[in-house]
Amino acid sequence: MTVLAPVLDELAAGLPADAVLTDPASTEAYRHDEANFCPSGTPLAVVRPTATEQVQHVLRVASAHRVPVVPQGSRTGLSGAANAVDGGIVLSLSRMDQIVEINPVDQVAVVEPGVLNAVLSRAVLEQGLYYPPDPSSWELSTIGGNLATNAGGLCCVKYGVTTDFVRALEVVMASGEILRTGRRTAKGVAGYDLTRLIVGSEGTLGVITQATLGLKPAPEAALTMAAAFTTAADALTAVTKIMAAGLQPSMCEFLDGVTVRAIQDYRDMGLPTGVGALLLTQSDRGPRAAADVEAMGVICGELGALDVAVASDATESAMLMEARRIVHFAVEKLGSTLIDDVAVPRSRLVDLLDGITVIAQEHGVTVCCPGHVGDGNMHPTVIFDRGDPAAVERAQKAFDAIMRLGLALGGTITGEHGVGVLKRDWLATELGELSTRLHRDIKKAFDPLGILNPGKVLAAG
Amino acid sequence: MTVLAPVLDELAAGLPADAVLTDPASTEAYRHDEANFCPSGTPLAVVRPTATEQVQHVLRVASAHRVPVVPQGSRTGLSGAANAVDGGIVLSLSRMDQIVEINPVDQVAVVEPGVLNAVLSRAVLEQGLYYPPDPSSWELSTIGGNLATNAGGLCCVKYGVTTDFVRALEVVMASGEILRTGRRTAKGVAGYDLTRLIVGSEGTLGVITQATLGLKPAPEAALTMAAAFTTAADALTAVTKIMAAGLQPSMCEFLDGVTVRAIQDYRDMGLPTGVGALLLTQSDRGPRAAADVEAMGVICGELGALDVAVASDATESAMLMEARRIVHFAVEKLGSTLIDDVAVPRSRLVDLLDGITVIAQEHGVTVCCPGHVGDGNMHPTVIFDRGDPAAVERAQKAFDAIMRLGLALGGTITGEHGVGVLKRDWLATELGELSTRLHRDIKKAFDPLGILNPGKVLAAG
């Protein structure tokens, strides 16, 4: 500590009295996000700034002393991207939680990174506007975390992901300098797209301290269809037909039989158990919505759906949505989990699920499969007993095999959860040598000393 | 030529016999795009490859001999980005014009860069699909050029610009290596977003040889509203009210009085002359469209529109669209033109137009103002007599003053036309020192020898 004391003293000199935590009892909660099997270190300090100048101060001190800095939101991530590193500074942005502006003419919101997704979503809705990205963690996760991971969600199938709604960023660089990227305007092509380079870079290129987000007019209330199938393959075939028919679902979610039962065991949501799969779709196309969900239902019926139901009111729709949102908690009751996040072209979904079934058998593990299937994004979740080393090993092998399968089907190792430390080695496999080299060169241009979230996304050094 | 002969020999060795043009009479047409006042050099050769391996060959030879390479599409650009440089190779991608695949389930098209925008748009429409980006040049411009400039168009106000529809790229690097970015899937967050870094980089980072583009279901036929106003300010105020009302126009175009008269003089399109401005809007929301355009009309009426008309059939709608599309040609009849491309937050449109009026008066020039005003993107076009040096100087000063105004209003120097050589110095002003430095570092990571489109976007060296 004697060596580190000057760092702490310098940090404290430019921050409010309660901004720096060093007591292990206080810093413990900031050590890691929700991912399993991701190493997390013991930080030198947790710093909680309330203004951009304070973030600049932290980065200047960190640069001067070559101390790693891990930017952090609510730690709801699933890849360890926000995990502390030994002797580093955890830079929690949660206290920078102001909505600076909501403008209905320009259809933009200007926010600090600590604003919760749900808080922003509700605030813009009050003005008839819509911020679509809606990760399942939306009640807990921050916009800063959403930006850092380019978060997806249920709405993506129609409206796109976080990066599609980012217009401009204020970013504190590793040096403490302020970079402004993008612009408030709807269009703009002046220079390289640094905004979208930073979105999804998981805190490795800079610290986002303000974002200008594009908004849409609030959609009309959605109608929901639920269809139960004997086999998962039929449900996934229905998805390809629904999309090819141009029906534009505003949600298109898949729950395999194990997941449906897990939800129902966790909380009685009135779901049919003993089925092979449940497909939940929505349409928010106003006067078209009723015909849309009916057409979706007809497609499901033709594929042998056991039961097709259209939610008759908003309460019933909300209940089905809630069932989807609690998947993470319900599945965790089944045992320890390794949550995968592969995305494949929609046309390969059946191949993906068939392959996962084989992988589960080969490795003797249970894999449940909820997924944003309208986007081809599946969350195969390996369930295992953490106390049994052999089971842990089998789970990790199955997890890896699923990513290998996703890549073989023309997909990606991560549709929305990000790389963090969990998939760092797999990223190199997906990118290949040339792209990895470019990633390192870009990282070096932004962060020559390598102090920003080292060891995340790219291996250190 | 003796020094250069080895380069030509090496080029020819890996290319079809008719791929290399060196005769000045043949290469002349490839020297520049449609921008005025942009220097263009005399190329060593124009090379027209038909396959990716040939592009690799060209880049390898160019790297070995440090010869500049200017990637080029149809030369419809308006910033000189495709202009030849002295002694360099013009790499025309027009012969790589295959549509490799259109997939209705995955809703993607895979294309070579030389495919014309209109050819792709019609091909996907035959399968019930929609590729939205529609620059006014869509009948002539290539997808490769659209990608290089991140082209916009009329549809952007609802559907977004080129970058919003790009999923994956095959790129030949300056070294001749092949870089694959992105993925075919709808979602994916594995690594930094190199795809969108390359889109809009105007051929300075690599040569796009294949693109995987996202598609949407074909929209329903749009209804069109046209409203004539006494003053431009009223028309622009109508735009802000239409957008704030959440009416989601699929087109929202503004023509000032000078432009309306120029179109009508160029071709009789039945437009009302003697007005201050004409606003053209569309809605493609199916059953909502009629109510949408009526509501837009009511807003215009309340703001004192002289005349509000809803196109009663598709032919009439197409005619109004055509009127918008021929603006470029109509305005060129008025004299030599300097076409600006500022975009401002929609709420500042009235301020922009007021400022432009002042600038026109101060510099004694005529400025007509067509614009994609739904996006805040205006094309103030300075009309002048090229034969009069004093008039040329006044025009250039007015052109610069308009960009300065755009920046002062929180906007950008270019909404969709790009930087090229025309706005290279202004780009540094918009970006500032830090961002410019990062641009240079990124350029260097991709193109260490600086052979790719040197002097475009960033000043050489």
From TrEMBL, chains A, B:
InterPro entries to which the protein is assigned, alphabetical: FAD-bd_oxidored_4_C, FAD-bd_PCMH, FAD-bd_PCMH-like_sf, FAD-bd_PCMH_sub2, FAD-linked_Oxase-like_C, FAD-linked_OxidoTrans_Type4, Oxid_FAD_bind_N, Vanillyl_alc_oxidase_C-sub2
Q: Which UniProt keywords apply?
A: FAD, Flavoprotein, Oxidoreductase
Cofactors demanded by this protein: FAD
Domain FAD-binding PCMH-type, first and last residues per copy = 39-218
Superkingdom of the source species: Bacteria
- The name on file for this protein is FAD-binding oxidoreductase
Species whose genome carries this gene: Pseudonocardia aurantiaca
